[in-house]
Amino acid sequence: xxxxxxxxxxxxxxxxxxxxxxxxxxxxxxxxxxxxxxxxxxxxxxxxxxxxxxxxxxxxxxxxxxxxxxxx
Length: 72
Known about the structure:
CATH topology: Glutaredoxin
CATH architecture: 3-Layer(aba) Sandwich
Helix content: 25-40%
CATH class: Alpha Beta
Shape: globular
Number of strands: 4
Strand content: 15-25%
């Protein structure tokens, strides 16, 4: 899985905290991107934080990402 965050993005801090708690239970690559970087190919505007699942699906909700990371 891959987690995209951006400095100053409102949901990045809780997502990073959840990722820290989940560390070691699953493989997670954390990528810091700029506020204007488009990380999801089908969106016209950038959106972070976003979690890309191994299946290729994306989670955009901060609370959904945190819940997913707590399950690992």
